[in-house]
Amino acid sequence: MAAHPTRPPLITRLILQDFRTYASLDLAVSHPLVALVGDNGAGKTNLLEALSLFMPGRGLRRADLAEMARQPGPGGFAISVTLDTAFGDHRLGTGLERVTTEARAARICRVDGANVSSPSAFAEYLRIVWLTPDLDALFRGPAGDRRRFLDRFVLAVDSEHGARVNALERALRSRNRILEDSPHNRLWLDAIEREVAELAIAVASARRETVQRLAALILSTRDDDSPFPFATLSLDGEIDTLVATRPAVDAEDCYRRILHENRSRDRAAGRTLVGPQATDMLVRHGPKDIPASLASTGEQKALLIGLVLAHAQLVGSMTGIAPFILLDEVAAHLDPRRRAGLFATLETLGGQVWMTGADPDLFAGLEGRAEVLQVTPGMVRPLLP
């Protein structure tokens, strides 16, 4: 159920210590639209990555945390943001901390100075969606890329989804090891398959609910004159058919039987062949009614942007928190009409937007409507007229 919408949170201060190319940075911002301009390699994407770490997971680059520490440097890093919300200011912090030279680096998460168990605690204060150039080949790439994209969609509205996906992956690895090492140990296999089935149905159900809600929102807000064509969405996989056609308890029992019957086949394959780990998200170009993979490069880019913008709207309606939107180099390959349409849509969504681009002219249409900042290695300052 959607929460009651409130005034969108606004990041008013970003502090970095030993993060990527930044030895230290204390950046104050005051506008809902923030444009970061600078040469390639200046550190623009590093700022978006720092913000993306306030979501569960490894951020928009999917890098190991240790890779984010400045080199050379002490081996850890710290990030904090000050949020201006309808209920007052809050300070969120995360980073990588080394307790001793022998200890393993530990992730830290804090809210208003108090330690919290994981980044999931940040979901009470903010939600984040993003789009990076790495996703440009999403519709032509492997199913695994679309599955990760889908899970990020779910995670933005259900902060526990990532934990369930991780638990499912661990359970599947355990089953695979038992099949390889002790294939006749029925007690172990029965126990692990019970756990796998429970987690699998929960993961598949969360994905299905999010896709259904997003598809309904896209249909209800469809605008054939928009520069970003609408998408139609569906899930493809045996487990998805199971969840769509049976109550959860029946689907769990049925999937457990599938796992039992497929033990020999899965052992030969070295992996579990049926389950949420084999799901694909099918996307079609709505106006042309063709698979997104067959659309032109420009059409795929516009379709992807439209999908992310619709997702941002869904996050706001379901959680009551207009999400922060991180857009890395998104305007560079858009024609003037689509660029203007993008900026106009972003202003209506309500959430704070952080965008990057190498050419300041890309944001010329936002003069007086955005805070434009010049990024040079290790530094950020207002762009001079």
From TrEMBL:
InterPro entries the UniProt entry points to? AAA+_ATPase, DNA-binding_RecF, DNA-binding_RecF_CS, P-loop_NTPase, RecF/RecN/SMC_N, RecF_2
Q: Is DNA damage set as a keyword in this record?
A: yes
Q: Please, which domain of life does this record's source organism belong to? A: Bacteria
Give the UniProt record's GO annotations in the biological process aspect. Answer: DNA replication; DNA synthesis involved in DNA repair; double-strand break repair; SOS response
Q: Name one GO cellular component term.
A: cytoplasm
List the Pfam families. SMC_N
Instruction: Please list the residues that bind ATP.
Output: G38, D39, N40, G41, A42, G43, K44, T45
Looking at the keywords, is Plastid present? no
- GO molecular function annotations of the record: ATP binding; single-stranded DNA binding
Any idea where the AAA+ ATPase domain is? 30-376
Q: Which UniProt keywords apply?
A: ATP-binding, Cytoplasm, DNA damage, DNA repair, DNA replication, DNA-binding, Nucleotide-binding, SOS response
Where is the protein localized?
Answer: Cytoplasm
Q: Which PANTHER family match?
A: DNA REPLICATION AND REPAIR PROTEIN RECF (PTHR32182:SF0)
Purpose: The RecF protein is involved in DNA metabolism; it is required for DNA replication and normal SOS inducibility. RecF binds preferentially to single-stranded, linear DNA. It also seems to bind ATP.
Task: Indicate the family of this protein.
Answer: Belongs to the RecF family.
The name this protein carries in UniProt is DNA replication and repair protein RecF
Q: What is the lineage of its organism?
A: Bacteria, Pseudomonadati, Pseudomonadota, Alphaproteobacteria, Hyphomicrobiales
